[in-house]
Amino acid sequence: MNLETTKEIKIEKLIELKKEENRRERERNKNNKLGDKQNELEKILGETKERLKKEVYNEKQLETEIQKAYEKYKDKPHFIVESNKYGDLRQIVKRIKKTVECKKKDQKEDHRQMEIIYLVY
Q1: Name one Pfam family in it (predicted).
Q2: Which residues in the chain land under pLDDT 70?
Q3: Which of 1, 55, 78, 119 is the least crowded, having the fewest Cβ atoms under 10 Å away?
């Protein structure tokens, strides 16, 4: 067996080894970044949900809409995390405000209907 290797072969093998190390490092960093951004996405959507709760929106509907938004953006959280660059978070909040019922409006309408009924009788 010939165990002697030339300098060129050694350099070639070291270069291949370094390329593989770099590829694995990039893959590991990519997975870590995605996980970090998904955690940040959960945090941002949670804060948005709390803010909308304070505006007296229906909690159950709000929870389902926030969950839908999370499912839609969990693989591409940068659209929400980098909200100064992309308008997706504003669009989500706008859509939620349109679709989710507000408790205040319902209470006011109920009160008006009760007044009308009271005045009629």
Answers
A1: Borrelia_orfA
A2: 1-3, 103-121
A3: 1
Residues contacting 62, CB < 8 A, separation 6+: 49, 52, 53, 96, 100
Q: Which helix (H) or strand (E) holds 18?
A: helix 7-54
Mean pLDDT for the chain overall: 84
Task: Determine the straight-line distance between the first and last CA of the chain, rounded to whole angstroms.
Answer: 110
Measuring CA to CA, how many Å separate 22 from each of 13, 33, 36, 54, 66?
14, 16, 21, 48, 38
User: Whose structure tokens read 């989710």?
Assistant: 100
Both tokens of 77, joined, read 């959280």
Amino acid at 10: K
Closest CA to 63 of 75, 81, 48: 48
